[in-house]
Amino acid sequence: SDTMQNSTVDQLRQWDNDHVWHPFTPMEAYKSEEAPIIESGEGFELIDVEGNRYLDGISALWCNVHGHNVPEINLAIQNQLGKIAHTTLLGMSSTPSIELAKRLVDLTPKSLTRVFYSDSGSTAVEAALKMAWQFHRQKPSGPEERDLFGTVSGAYHGDTIGSVSVGSIELFHQVYGKMLFQTVSVPSPASVHSSPSETRDREVTDCFDQVRNIIEEYGSRLNAFVIEPLVQGAAGILVHPPGYLQHVRDLTKKAGIPLICDEVAVGFGRTGTMFACEQEDVEPDLMCLAKGITGGYLPVAVTMASEEIFSAFLGDPSAGRTFFHGHTYTGNPLGCAAALASLDLLERNSVIENAKRIAGVLEDELQLLRSHPHVTEIRQKGTMVGIEFVRSRTPLERYPATRRTGHLVTLAARKRGVILRPLGDTVVLMPAPAMPEELVKKLCRVVIESIDEA
Ligand code: PLP
């Protein structure tokens, strides 16, 4: 066996505890949890240094599309590696970044013609915010000093200062308040999810009206309106009512406010179409893509822009209209090669068809939980599922935060060889769009057992 000897495993665990500061992880508790140390991946499974296998129930934090160690993507990266691993996009170009840009322009809504590369979802959002800001100061119709961004409450757009500013998940935002810039937000049309059905329709209508109100009141001050199309992922898979995205697009278009669609989580098949915008025929002015763009292999992100936005950045170099943004590893050729291979596989293996099919499997298999005394809601859009726990359904009584119910379910699932990820009292399931039906059934079975145990 090529798994490690016990002494080496203990050493790794010690060094992990002593030196690795894990993201979004309470580090005091982490030490005692003996979290898996992953050494390899095979299909939809992760294998740790002790040889234990885990079904990857969250697509490696929502980015994996085709499984791990996929020969076609490995080969594409190896081929590119034989040419060059990295070269800059600042003032020059590289073959895979050009080819990927062309593919993305052909695939995405036709309003989007320009591709700006970065490395993560957060930076794709950060770039979109700066583009929108600068656009108003440089547009041909005359400069405007707009000072706000419009957002949806409970949004998550990343963890850099700009992307945190336009998000508002309380758990992640309490600490950094004073570092952030100002936004105006509309209530999430999904936050009314636990209202009784007789009031729900009226509340949803109110949410539609709120978009109109905000735009009437602040429209001329808004640099852009930012939205996670169809579903707010990190808020716990909060699904928007049909027509909401289209409504936001109509109103922002009429008011001349650029719309930023953050497709970082939903892009590349997760909601059952290549991009979520397609489902409401929405053409954004800016679109952010990351996570699944490389099939979950390498850190590549893009901000796509319309020709109108892009052209405000043209002019004599001395005029200072350049977009002043760009990271060292922007448009990395290995990442772009992986992305091209992933796009080929999406088509060749009919992955989106599979995503639609397994969305049905998730819905059927999780039916059992609908009557569970501690499950208040199962929210689902395509392959994205959030299961929320409460102490009591009627009357509605939540658990104290110290109970960490999502975390407990995650630990119980891990013992059973399945990786999940908690968000407070919600546990998220996000099988890769290409996961076969039998594995999705196994995932659901283990989730149900783990909820019962926890
Ligand atoms: N936008 C959305 C909608 C996301 O769900 C995420 C991550 O979960 C991000 C942005 C940030 O992406 P990253 O973690 O790659 O910076």
TrEMBL record:
Look up the record and give one Gene Ontology term from the biological process aspect. Answer: biotin biosynthetic process
Q: What does this protein do?
A: Catalyzes the transfer of the alpha-amino group from S-adenosyl-L-methionine (SAM) to 7-keto-8-aminopelargonic acid (KAPA) to form 7,8-diaminopelargonic acid (DAPA). It is the only aminotransferase known to utilize SAM as an amino donor.
- Subunit note: Homodimer.
Annotated GO CC locations = cytoplasm
**Keyword annotations from UniProtKB, A to Z:** Aminotransferase, Biotin biosynthesis, Cytoplasm, Pyridoxal phosphate, S-adenosyl-L-methionine, Transferase
Q: What is its EC number?
A: 2.6.1.62
Protein name in UniProt = Adenosylmethionine-8-amino-7-oxononanoate aminotransferase
Q: Where in the cell is it found?
A: Cytoplasm
The organism is: Thalassoglobus neptunius
- Summarize where pyridoxal 5'-phosphate binds, as residue positions: G121, S122, D262, H327, T328
Enumerate the cofactors the protein uses. pyridoxal 5'-phosphate
UniProt cross-references to Pfam families, sorted A to Z: Aminotran_3
Q: Where is this site: Participates in the substrate recognition with KAPA and in a stacking interaction with the adenine ring of SAM?
A: F24
Q: What class of enzyme is it?
A: transferase
User: Which terms in the Gene Ontology molecular function aspect does this entry carry?
Assistant: adenosylmethionine-8-amino-7-oxononanoate transaminase activity; pyridoxal phosphate binding
Catalysed reactions, semicolon-separated: (8S)-8-amino-7-oxononanoate + S-adenosyl-L-methionine = S-adenosyl-4-methylsulfanyl-2-oxobutanoate + (7R,8S)-7,8-diammoniononanoate
Give the main location. cytoplasm
Query: Per the similarity annotation, which family is this?
Result: Belongs to the class-III pyridoxal-phosphate-dependent aminotransferase family. BioA subfamily.
Task: Name the gene that codes for it.
Answer: bioK
